[in-house]
């Protein structure tokens, strides 16, 4: 049980609220779009090693990237295939820019048709809000377009005012740098001395490190990484759960969570999404 008054909450998107289906590199949403983009550029420029990049190597590139961005994952691919020989990411590299453009276009269609919440995520956010934790923010390295699509699809958009949605475009230093969590915290308009009473929800060790460096109480969900792995990192989370149902118990909002976590509620969200044209 959380033993302090929660003043606010900041959420990552991918693999925290949005189910990227990352347990399988072959079906993971971001990984699929990135791999198609890499293969396409390999064919366009006759780079055999990019054409032959495997599903597993594509997945490993993101996991091994020093920072939590698409560009860093693609640069890891360049390093493993010999396209680049310096670990310093060159954001102006023409092949990198081409891959990012193609991947972002492909991912939009995948997200629109296949994007779903991590089970229980929507119910948990809504339960927090009605329990009095209504200062909510987003801190994600996803591009703003994709965050907006997800929030609209799930009906969560009204809970996150525009000025509290911090995306890739909001920062110059990606996770594990704490910048994005710092600016998300500032958007909540909560006293500085209450940082430790604001909960950050993450799934990735780089995001956990960023949130902890920002002085936030950090909660991790095991959508991509195991509990043991997360707790063994240099900056382990303060709390780890395997599901949002478990988080609801920790935060003592189980009844509110259960009231939202019903099939008919999800059907209403899908109806709202379809009516909005998403």
UniProtKB/TrEMBL annotation:
One Gene Ontology biological process: DNA repair
CDD domains reported in the protein's UniProt record: HAD_BPGM-like
GO-annotated cellular components: cytosol
Protein name in UniProt: HAD family phosphatase
UniProt organism field: Candidatus Roizmanbacteria bacterium CG_4_10_14_0_8_um_filter_39_9
Lineage top rank: taxon: Bacteria
Coiled-coil residue spans: none
One function term, GO molecular function aspect: phosphoglycolate phosphatase activity
PANTHER family assigned to the protein according to its UniProt record, in alphabetical order: PHOSPHOGLYCOLATE PHOSPHATASE (PTHR43434:SF1)
Pfam families according to UniProt: Hydrolase (PF00702)
């Amino acid at each position: 049980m959380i033993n302090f008054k929660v003043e606010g909450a900041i959420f990552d998107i991918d693999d925290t609220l949005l189910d990227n289906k990352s347990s399988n590199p072959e079906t993971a949403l971001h990984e699929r779009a990135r791999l198609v983009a890499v293969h396409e550029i390999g064919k366009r420029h006759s780079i055999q090693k990019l054409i032959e990049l495997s599903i597993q190597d594509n997945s490993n590139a993101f996991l091994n990237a020093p920072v939590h961005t698409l560009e860093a994952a693609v640069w890891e691919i360049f390093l493993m295939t010999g396209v680049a020989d310096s670990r310093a990411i060159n954001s102006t590299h023409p092949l990198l820019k081409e891959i990012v453009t193609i991947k972002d276009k492909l991912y939009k269609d995948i997200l629109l048709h296949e994007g779903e919440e991590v089970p229980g995520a929507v119910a948990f956010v809504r339960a927090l809000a009605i329990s009095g934790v209504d200062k909510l923010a987003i801190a994600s390295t996803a591009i703003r377009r994709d965050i907006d699509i997800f929030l609209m699809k799930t009906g969560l958009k009204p809970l996150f005012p525009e000025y509290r949605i911090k995306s890739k475009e909001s920062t110059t230093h990606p996770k594990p740098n704490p910048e994005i969590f710092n600016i998300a915290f500032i958007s909540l308009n909560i006293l500085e001395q209450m940082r430790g009473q604001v909960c950050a929800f993450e799934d990735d060790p780089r995001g956990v490190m960023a949130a902890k460096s920002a002085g936030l109480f950090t909660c991790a969900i095991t959508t991509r990484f195991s509990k043991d792995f997360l707790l063994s990192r240099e900056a382990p989370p303060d709390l780890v759960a395997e599901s949002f149902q478990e988080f609801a118990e920790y935060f003592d909002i189980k009844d509110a969570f259960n009231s939202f976590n019903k099939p008919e509620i999800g059907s209403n969200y899908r109806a709202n999404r379809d009516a909005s044209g998403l």
